[in-house]
Amino acid sequence: MQVQCPRCNKLLDASDQMAGQVVSCPSCGGQMQLPAAAGPAPAAPLPGAGPAGPGEPTKSCPYCGEQILAAAQKCRHCGSMLYGPGAGRSAAAPAPAAQGLNDGIKSIIFGGVGFVVCGLAGPVAIYYALRARQVESERTLGNIGLALGIIGLVIAVAQVLVIGGMIASGGH
After folding, report:
1. Which run of H or of E encompasses 28?
2. Does any domain span residue 38?
3. Which end of the chain has fewer surrounding CB within 10 Å, N or C?
4. CB of 5 within 8 A of CB of 22?
């Protein structure tokens, strides 16, 4: 079976024997529950169809656990898409790119501030960089932000050591 990681959207191949199990994404480390094994899927119901009638096969939603039609493409309870590019995300939730600045950009901004102005922004850059590196599309930005954040942190430590040395020596 092929599933999409709800965290990084990477397509993963899993054996049918792993159906229903919780697995970790090899790309981002996020955990997800694989869809339960189902026989051949019947024709998809019409959109807006009510609950399953007697004799219609059902399955548990891998995201909320509620019973849904076996042929469902979207959970009617939590709104999560079950297959395709939006799998694991609620249809009502915006895609990650639509949620403002991503963590990779934030890491570069804080890294630049830490490098140029105030080294104390370095740890914030490192935090966002580590988050960005977990998402494949932000990994490069995260690496740049991580480098800038580390340099900014080193500058901050050096400044503290120099100022501390000047104070200890009486300002000379």
Report:
1. none
2. no
3. C
4. no
Residue at 37 is within a domain: no
Per-residue pLDDT tens digits for 123-157: 888 888 888 888 777 888 888 888 888 888 887 78
Transcribe 60-78 into DSSP letters. Answer: E-TTT--EEETT-SB-TTT
SS3 96: helix
Domain that holds residue 115: 98-168
| Strand, helix or coil for residue 35 | coil
Asked if residue 118 belongs to a domain, the reply is yes
Residue 147 lies in a domain: yes
Q: What is the rounded distance in angstroms from the CA atom of residue 70 to the CA atom of residue 62?
A: 12
Number of domains in the chain: 1
Instruction: Compute φ and ψ for 86, nearest 5 degrees.
Output: -100, 15
Helical residues (DSSP H) of 3-102, grouped into ranges: none
